[in-house]
Amino acid sequence: MKGNKFIREEDVDAKSVKRKSILSFIVFFIMLFLGFATWKWINNQPTEQGALKPLRKMLDVNEKIFSTVFDSTKLAKEYPLSAAAKNVRFNGYEGIRDSIEEINWRLNVIRNNGDTLKISLEELKKLPKKEIIFDFKCIEGWNQITHWAGVPLKDFMKHYHLGTESMKKYVGLETPDKGYYVGIDMPSALHPQTILCYEMNGKALPLKQGFPLRLIIPVKYGVKHIKRIGTLFFSDQKPADYWAERGYDYYTGH
User: Fold this and answer.
1) In sequence order, what DSSP letters do the residues of 36-53 get, joined into one string?
2) What is the pTM of this model?
3) Which residues contact 230 (CB under 8 A, 6 or more apart)?
4) For the segment 221-245, what is each residue's pLDDT rounded down to a tens digit?
5) Rounded to the nearest 5°, which phi and psi values hold at 206?
């Protein structure tokens, strides 16, 4: 064309690709820098309940979301007895390292007025028993269908006239030696499938599974299923929780 140079389409495409490539590299390095700066900032923050403060705040947000949508009428799936594992997996000896005799054990229930109920296993067994076969889920990623039996915590609280205590926001549970402890939101504690458990596969709990009494709470991961309960109390503030203090989620529902 007269007075102009002919520009090939290939040259235009090459220049466009080059500009886009340069722009992509610039954006990549900006994002890389921002990601590194954010990582540095998070790691320089103070800890709160075992986790860096920004991470703990995010876990708290997750807890609010899950607790808001929690439905106490929604039941965990139950299975036939034939599906239950014969060799039940277990994790951790925290709080159950020492042996214990049933005759020396009592469940100490601290009431709001400061009184303490001391309840034997024999007394617990007089209450209506509930069996549950469900898919026990561990926060480590494994799961197993297991068979348990005991007293629904909701029925237990009704029997021992703990209605005022049930108005609190949380239940705290500790092993006799205080070596393991959990805090559980009251709606989950009063879920109809939550039981104070004294049997596994139709027999008394083995020592390593929490003899004489443990918690089974199907709406939570395994870290909340405290073995060998010694003390049970109620609070409007979050009770201490063994794994939450080590950076894990407090709510731990699924």
Assistant:
1) HHHHHHHHTSPEETTEEH
2) 0.80
3) 105, 107, 108, 174, 175, 176, 177, 178
4) 999 999 999 999 999 999 999 999 8
5) -65, 160
